[in-house]
Specification:
The chain has 3 domains: about 160 residues, P-loop containing nucleotide triphosphate hydrolases (Rossmann fold); about 130 residues, Leucine Dehydrogenase, chain A, domain 1 (Rossmann fold, 3-Layer(aba) Sandwich); about 130 residues, 3-Layer(aba) Sandwich (Rossmann fold), CATH 3.40.50. It contains 19 helices and 17 strands. The strands form 3 sheets. Strands 7-6-8-10-11-9 form a 6-stranded mixed beta sheet, with helices on both faces. A 6-stranded parallel beta sheet has the order 14-13-12-15-16-17, sandwiched between helices. A hairpin with a 2-residue loop joins strand 10 and strand 11. Helix 1 crosses helix 8, helix 2 crosses helix 4 and helix 7 crosses helix 18.
């Protein structure tokens, strides 16, 4: 059994860790103490002599040495900002994020000889670093516990009682929640997930929310990655016509993350507690991270569009479609300083999207004669069983790069037409790969390479 405690200084990792280790009959490993032992000097001296980078390198070595231990691990406040540390801590383990309000943290660490990291006044530094580390903390955590008004013993009691819901709360209504959860899982056709949870109460769940989503390759990818990193996680499908019902089930499960697809990328926002700046600007969420009973919305689709098109920076682009994926595409293209035109079957939808991002718009028929350097197709047309293409080979110029966000089938009718016209083509699998690398990091705290994602999809 391996339990890792993460969080900012002053949240109680060491005091909680010692009591928890004693309660569980396991050894306690304090990574800061192990760094000091390895360096032969206290941490303030390491910072003075060699700087933070050297401290982080020593910390990386210490965490790696604990990859296969059984015990309770208390980490330094910035340890999980290194995704490699997260991968080692997650290996056959469970991670608890301990939190506290900034003011409480400042009071708890007052008088410490640890050097500051920003040069800011103490409370301002705490707030700045908490914000900077927020995504890393939430991604790395399986369970979040607020220690602000709890004693270390009370926090330990909560961890010991924790039954895998991913949100440590009072359990008076546990039977009622379990009954509702199991009933919804049966309605969703997910009795296999119910049985997994019965056999493995510590299992964490992720899934794709959409209607339809049976075509998605996310379950294949995620479950292979979970196995690769030795995580006690399972990824499934939540296919249902109502996003609110999916969110209700998510809140009854030990759920850590959701991939969101058609038609819920905009609708799901109303059910979230926070939405990041990119998702807010796009008006669509494709990634939900859950921790401490709160849901955080992100959009990684735009990175999946942007990365393969960096070589086309400053060109002229046409986006076909005006939905959530189109908004992500326009956002990505605008970040590459491209001149963008939105074309859609519904003129009003095209106009509304174009006005949001201050670009041109029109109907699909306006594409004829286009001098676009880049065409990004964002509609479901071409996705099996709809085998049409919005454009034919003679609509396209050889100089054009055609990016079809549809990835099932791998070679869509549009991609075939573009190849026939001699265009550079980018299949939707590339968008899937690049958005998935960022999505996996947001949900798990682990960084994966595009090469590993492609290997897992093969």
């Amino acid at each position: 059994m391996k339990v890792a405690l993460i969080g900012f200084r002053g949240t109680g990792k060491t005091s909680v860790g010692r009591i928890l280790a004693d309660r569980l009959g396991l050894p306690f490993y304090d990574t800061d103490a192990l760094v000091e032992r390895r360096a032969g000097m206290p941490i303030p001296e390491i910072f003075r002599r060699a700087g933070e980078a050297h401290f982080r390198a020593l910390e990386r070595e210490v965490v790696a040495s604990l990859r296969d231990v059984e015990g309770v691990i208390g980490t330094g406040g910035g340890a999980v900002c290194d995704p490699a540390n997260v991968a080692d801590l997650r290996r056959q383990g469970k991670i608890y994020l301990l939190t506290a309000p900034p003011g409480t943290i400042v009071n708890r660490i007052a008088g410490s000889d640890r050097p500051g990291l920003t040069g800011l006044p103490p409370e301002e530094e705490v707030r700045t670093l908490l914000l900077r580390r927020k995504k890393a903390y939430l991604g790395a955590a399986d369970v979040c516990i607020d220690t602000g008004k709890r004693t270390p013993g009370e926090v330990v009691d909560m961890i010991v009682r924790e039954q895998g819901y991913g949100n440590v709360t009072a359990r008076e209504d546990a039977k009622t929640r379990k009954h509702e959860r199991d009933a919804l899982l049966e309605r969703f056709g997910l009795t296999a997930v119910r049985d997994m949870l019965e056999r493995n109460p510590g299992l964490m769940v992720c899934g794709i929310a959409g209607n339809p989503c049976a075509h998605s390759r996310s379950p294949l990818l995620y479950n292979r990655l979970f196995e690769h990193f030795e995580m006690n996680y399972h990824y499934t499908r939540f296919e249902w016509p109502d996003a609110g019902v999916i969110i209700r089930l998510a809140n009854l499960l030990p759920l850590k993350g959701l991939s969101v697809t058609i038609p819920f990328k905009a609708d799901v926002i109303r059910d979230l507690d926070e939405v990041d700046e990119h998702a807010a600007a796009i008006g669509a969420v494709n990634t939900v991270v859950r921790c401490g009973g709160r849901m955080y919305g992100h959009n990684t689709d735009w990175l999946g569009v942007r990365t393969p098109l960096i070589h086309r920076r400053g060109g002229r682009a046409v986006v076909l479609g005006a939905g959530g994926a189109a908004a992500a595409a326009v956002y990505a293209l605008r970040s590459l300083d491209m001149e963008v035109t939105v074309l859609a079957r519904r003129p009003e939808a095209a106009r509304k999207l174009a006005e949001r991002f201050k670009c041109r718009w029109g109907v699909l028929e306006d594409f004829r004669g286009s001098d676009a350097d880049v065409v990004v197709h964002t509609t479901p047309v071409g996705m099996e069983p709809d085998t049409r293409s919005l454009l034919a080979a003679d609509d396209l110029e050889r100089k054009t790069t055609v990016f079809d966000l549809v990835y099932t089938p791998p070679e869509t009718p549009l991609i075939r037409a573009a190849r026939e016209a001699g265009c550079e083509t980018i299949p939707g699998t590339e968008m899937f790969v690049y958005q998935a690398t960022e999505q996996f990091r947001l949900i798990t705290g682990i960084a994966v390479t595009p090469e590993l994602v492609r290997e897992m999809l093969a």
